[in-house]
Amino acid sequence: MDSAGKKVRAFVRVKPTAHFAQDMIKFGPDNKSIDIYIKKDAKRGVVNNRQTDWSFRLDGVLHNTSQELTYETVAKKLVSEALIGYNGTIMCYGQTGAGKTYTMTGATAEYRHRGIIPRAVQQVFRAIARSIDSFITVRISYLEIYNETLCDLLSTMTSSGASDVQMAVVDCPQGVYVKGLSIHSVSNEEDALNLLFEARSNEYYASSVGYGETNRIIAEHTLNKNSSRSHCIFTIYIESRFRDLSDVRCVNSKISLIDLAGSERLSKTGSEGQVLKEATYINKSLSFLEQIIIALADPKREHIPFRQSKLTHVLKDSLGGKCNTVLVANICGEALHVEETVS
C-alpha cells in the first residue's frame, strides 16, 4: 500500500481450453481465489515432502471472459485516473503461450478481439473528445527489450540502425527515460493505432522494416508457434492543461502497457541455438523483476536493485509509489501446465 491507500491489483486470466484440469484447479465462489492441487508422484520414492496444495487470493479471476470484459475489469479505472494525473502500469506475465500478447494487443481483424492497448487508446481519445475544460496532448512510444538490448519499435530504421547503439536507460530528477527512444505525437485514435498495427512485412518480425507489432521479434518452439521473444512496453504520455482563472495548470502522466516475454522451462519448449539463448535472457530478466517486486513489498528494504537488468531499470518509476499498478497473470488451465501455473 502507498501513502494514498492504493495497492497493486492482481488478476489471473485463464486461457480457454477444452481440456481444463477441473480436478486440479478450483475457483472460489467469489471469483477472487484459486486453489490448486497436484497429486504426489509415487516415483519419487517413499518419502515425498513436496507441497501439493496451494491457495491464492486475487482481485479477480478472468475465466472464459471476453476482451471487452477483461478491459473493463483490468484497465478502465486505471486509464481514467491517468487522465487526471496518476501514472498507471498494466503488466501481462506468465508462461509462454498462455495468452499475454492476445490480452495486451489482441487481434486486428475484428474489434471484439482487440486487447488492452487499442482499447486504452480509444478510451483516452474519447475522454479528450468529451473534455471542455482542458487541452490534452497525447504522445506514444513503443520499446522492445530483446536479449538485454533496447530497440525502438516505432523507428523506421532496421535493427542494425545507429539508433539502437545510442539507446540507453537514463536516470533524471523527473524519473527514468530511454535516451534515443522516439516519442510520437498523435492527434487521434486512428493515428495511434496505425503506429501500433501498420504492417510492412509477412516475414518474421525481426527482419521486417516498419512500425510497432510488425517489428517485434518472434520465434517458434513446441509450446507456441508465434512466441514473443522480447519484452515490449507501449507507453501513452498524457499532458493536460487546465485553465484555472488566469493561471494555466499542467498535469503530466503516463500509462505503461507491458507485454512480457513468456517464461518457460527449456525441457518443455525444446529450445536450442538462438532460441535457447533468448530463453536464457528472458528467464534471467523475469527473475530480476520478481526480486524487485519482492523488495518493493518489504518495508524494511532501503535499496531496491532496479539496475540489475534493462527491464527493471526502465520500469523504475512504473512500479510502486504513486503509480497505479495492475498485474495480469496469464495461465494455461491444462493439467500438463499446472506446475507452471503454480509458479
Automatic annotation (TrEMBL):
Q: Which Pfam families match?
A: Kinesin (PF00225)
Task: Tell me the superkingdom of the source.
Answer: Eukaryota
Which annotated residues bind ATP? Answer: 94-101
Q: Which Gene3D superfamilies match?
A: Kinesin motor domain
- Keywords, alphabetical: ATP-binding, Cell projection, Cilium, Coiled coil, Cytoplasm, Cytoskeleton, Flagellum, Microtubule, Motor protein, Nucleotide-binding, Phosphoprotein
Q: Name one GO biological process term.
A: microtubule-based movement
Tell me the ranges covered by the Kinesin motor domain, including all copies: 7-343
GO MF, any single term = microtubule motor activity
User: Which InterPro entries is this protein grouped with?
Assistant: Kinesin-like_fam, Kinesin_motor_CS, Kinesin_motor_dom, Kinesin_motor_dom_sf, P-loop_NTPase
Where is the protein found, in the record's own terms?
Cytoplasm, Cytoskeleton, Flagellum axoneme
Q: Can you cite an annotated GO cellular component?
A: microtubule
Q: Which SUPFAM superfamilies match?
A: P-loop containing nucleoside triphosphate hydrolases
Report the function annotation for this chain: Essential for normal male fertility and for progressive motility of spermatozoa.
Q: How does it assemble?
A: Interacts with HYDIN.
Which family is annotated? Belongs to the TRAFAC class myosin-kinesin ATPase superfamily. Kinesin family.
Name-wise, this protein is Kinesin-like protein
